[in-house]
């Protein structure tokens, strides 16, 4: 609780502001791409169970299908940048840790409000980064839906973040102008000196001898972020870089052949049996007062179309373009008697697990690349890739490209 306890001679407004500036830019991009990911799920069609989003869903819009790699880009950026910012976040928390132990904790109403905003800011940042990391590493340990927790946590955090920026932008600007970055990067350990005393109390009143320069601190954080970038970004870039994505659960080479690309959930993990997808399997197509029942052979007799599309997942991983073939969703809407369907509900035959159904918008139905896929890369779908039929839609989150489809309900 004593200011003299914190003795680092490099802690001060300038170093804190350098890390803060990086977080200001990075967190803004992560938040915006997170909002885009939420919109891509078509939550107002029932794909999301987050209750009472109300005003928080003010920005939702019809998620586009062009370009086909849009979700691969936005979600890859969201996850990769979030991981890369972890060393910067930790460094920023280290740089201001004396303020977290101010005593007495409350000296005035204004200071109490500032402390409350700091609690929401620090707590929100830790919560969002930790839950995001657990999700992309496939550790489902959440006491409820990850999507609801991450959604509400993001809004709490960003509100505190915006308030903090409004309060500190002047201080940060003055601190950054007080020292030239070029000069600091030229200053070695022997010439490192404490910053002048500051009104916020970040500079130690009893600094110890330096054991690292500010140049070293910035370099250390930058090297940590670069290392995390190398160990993560390959899951989104693909190609040779996929082999460097050692921190990504989906980086591993899934094998060769037409079905040798990443799998989100296997058939066995969601209880798919041979009975579900065997000779007795039928696709039910509904629309208005019309209902059709089609075998796989009948689907193969319908006009077949092809599309080269990737799969991109909320966890940040994605595949290169795979060559799919099957029946256009628009053609199935015609068969159902609703060529101008407003949306379609896609139901899987899986009995357990999440995302057993998903809804698609009218623009997704009409896109000529949106298919009920029966084959991939010139071969029949494998069981884990959704045999006997799966949906594939450009720019659609992976879990909404429903596998093991059992019914399509087109709705006006």
TrEMBL record:
Q: Which CDD domains match?
A: SO_family_Moco (cd00321)
Domain of life of the organism encoding this protein: Bacteria
Q: Which UniProt keywords apply?
A: Membrane, Transmembrane, Transmembrane helix
**Residue intervals passing through the bilayer:** 12-41, 77-97, 118-140, 152-170, 217-241
Cite the Pfam families for this sequence: Oxidored_molyb (PF00174)
Q: Which GO terms describe its cellular component?
A: membrane
Q: Where is the Oxidoreductase molybdopterin-binding domain?
A: 278-410
The record, for SUPFAM superfamilies, names: Oxidoreductase molybdopterin-binding domain (SSF56524), Transmembrane di-heme cytochromes (SSF81342)
GO terms for biological process, alphabetical = respiratory electron transport chain
Name of the protein described by the UniProt record: Membrane protein
Species assigned in the record: Dactylosporangium sucinum
